[in-house]
Amino acid sequence: VRSSAASDVYTRQVSTQSTGNAIHTPPMFLQNPKTGALVFFSKNSRGQLGAEGFIVGANMLLISFFVVLLGQYIPSLLDRTIAARLFVSYKEKILREREEKERDRERERQREKEKEKEKEK
Questions:
Q1: Among the listed residues 36, 53, 42, 37, the one whose alpha carbon sits nearest the alpha carbon of residue 19
Q2: Which residues is 38 bridged to in the sheet?
Q3: Does position 18 have pLDDT exceeding 60, yes or no?
Q4: Residue 104: CB atoms within 10 Å
Q5: For residue 30, how many C-alpha atoms fall within 13 Å in the half-sphere facing its CB?
Q6: Is 42 exposed, middle or buried (0-12, 13-18, 19+ CB in 10 A)?
Q7: What pLDDT shows up at residue 9?
Q8: Is the pLDDT at 101 greater than 90, yes or no?
Q9: For the chain, what is the radius of gyration of the CA atoms?
Q10: Cα separation of 93 and 118, whole Å?
Q11: What angle do CA 33, 39, 41 make, to 5 degrees?
């Protein structure tokens, strides 16, 4: 008796459910029969374990999160530091100008005093 394609698919699904290699029911991990250690990454290039998917997905999520942080917050921090530097340099410039004006006023006062002393003589 010949089997149909549908029964072949069903047979494959039933036979692979015990090992968990079906598409919709992968096992989270396997146990090495020799050592008893848990295996989270499949050596088979055509299969993937559930834990492997979660680990890779979590890594991708973290990497994406940090890329967003780099793209959004680092430039704003740099802008703040640059703005702070500009503000500090502008403030220093204003203070220097005030000091220079004060020195000029003091020089003018000294000159006026000298002129008054010369007039009195």
A1: 42
A2: 31
A3: no
A4: 10
A5: 17
A6: middle
A7: 60
A8: yes
A9: 40
A10: 37
A11: 140
